[in-house]
Amino acid sequence: MTFAELKTLLFARSNFGMKLGLERMQEACALLGEPQRSAPVLHVAGTNGKGSTCAFAEASLRAAGLRTGLYTSPHLNHFCERIRLGGEPITEERACELLEELRKRVPWALGDPGLTFFEIVTLMAFLAFREVEVMVVEVGLGGRLDATNVVEPLACAVATLGLEHTQYLGSTLAEIAFEKAGIFKRGVPAASAGQPFPAAQVLQRRASALGISLWRPGRDYRFESRDVRPFCYQGPRWAVRAGDLALQGHHQRTNAALACALLEAAAQTGLRVEPIHAEAGLRTARWPARLERFGNVLVDGAHNPPAVNALVRALPALVTGKIHLVFGALQDKDAAAMLRELLPLCASMHFCAPDSPRALRPEVLAAFCLDAVHAAGQVRATPVNPVGDVRPDAVNAAGEVRAFPVNPDGEVRAFTYDSPTEALAAARQWAAGEGTVLCCGSLYLAAEVRALLLGERRLPMPSERL
Questions:
Q1: 424-433 residue pLDDT tens
Q2: Number of C-alpha atoms within 13 angstroms, CB side, residue 79?
Q3: Interval 96-123 mean pLDDT
Q4: Closest-CA residue to 319 (of 345, 281, 284)
């Protein structure tokens, strides 16, 4: 099998959408010899921060001299980034070998209906991880019925929760927390980041029902949350003094502390890792598109209101001068709420559509932006008509949304573009001098902008529904 053939096969699987449930995965794992049980597993769920938590934990385990497997989604630039051995993506050749093995040993996997894109890639990761000493596995969506939940973890963690994928997980924080708590297993210690009260209640009730410990910040572990102080963590037995974290942003302290709690809980059940390894991992972890800096351009994968809120809180310590925003979002995200958070900070806004069939049109994003100003009483006319289209009088002949005031420093100007390439180029012109370009709103957009800045070619792959 060639990598081109692999792409064709996986593109076909993307048409099957998403199917929550474990029966197909359990049957496939049995046929494959239960590869998900070949090494201890650290399992991480959450809305925001679970990827960074996984990155911190995996880097710490490598610092301990362990052979690691890291499974995350989605990828940014190349499909193989989803499956990492020793911190490095598998090769295209290895990906082809894994899919070929899966096709031979689970003959119905690529049939109709067969397995979904995400289920297949998860199984490929489990097969790749037969050669490692420990796996770090990020949940794709939810937890209880997610394809990764066939693992029997050594310890698990729940990163910060917020409203997401409500059509699948429920419309309240309590309902979403119930789905996330589905990764908890009897006899397996769990750790949680700080949570909104309704979510914290649900997580604790599930842990208590299973008779397991649930480590919570402020009660079971503590950490230095102030940006002006070196990072440190204190758990039941561990003391970690990491100093400066490898990943920028105030919110990364929460993720680093959760990673420490997860590692400490795993160490108490036998995993060979110590505080000194956590210190090294927190200082060396790599996780692209999380407040990643390229000169005067910051690229962040924030794609929901809680993540954007964390981003906004982090910016004052990282940015001087005016901010010029490059923004794109998908239809199932609350772009209007994200823009309400970002609007007061920005001197100009440059809207574009990420490379996804689910992307919002840039004109709609500009309309959301104007509506946010209207809600604050600063303009009189809404630019959106009852069917959700941008009113013709809201955009001039050049495609530029009319300027509108948002803060005492002057006017914000909003523009729409046909591509992220054009939006980035324009924002960089506006930021020439002392300004900063901020790119966020979608992981798909972050991936495109990052590839542009690095001069890399992005590999087209299925746009899974996660």
A1: 999 999 998 7
A2: 27
A3: 94
A4: 345
Tell me how far apart the alpha carbons of residues 103 and 95 are, in angstroms, rounded to a whole number. Answer: 12
Q: Are 450 and 463 in contact (CB under 8 A)?
A: no
- pLDDT given for residue 170 in this prediction: 76
pLDDT score for 459 = 65
pTM for this prediction: 0.88
CB atoms within 10 A of CB 35: 18
Q: What angle do CA 241, 247, 253 make, to 5 degrees?
A: 50
Contact 433, 443 (CB under 8 A): no
Residue 391 has a pLDDT of 43
| Percentage above 70 pLDDT, the chain | 88
Class of domain 292-454: alpha beta
What are the start and end residues of each CATH 3.40.1190.10 domain in the chain?
3-284
Region 113-120 average pLDDT: 92
Q: Where in the chain is the domain with CATH 3.90.190.20?
A: 292-454
Confidence check: pLDDT of 207 > 80: yes
448 contacts: CB under 8 Å, gap ≥ 6? 354, 355, 420, 458
The CATH code of the domain at 3-284 is 3.40.1190.10
* pLDDT (tens digit per residue) in 242-281: 989 999 888 999 999 999 999 999 999 999 999 999 999 9
Give the residue carrying structure tokens 């798909």.
Answer: 444
* Distance, CA of 324 to CA of 346 (rounded, Å): 6
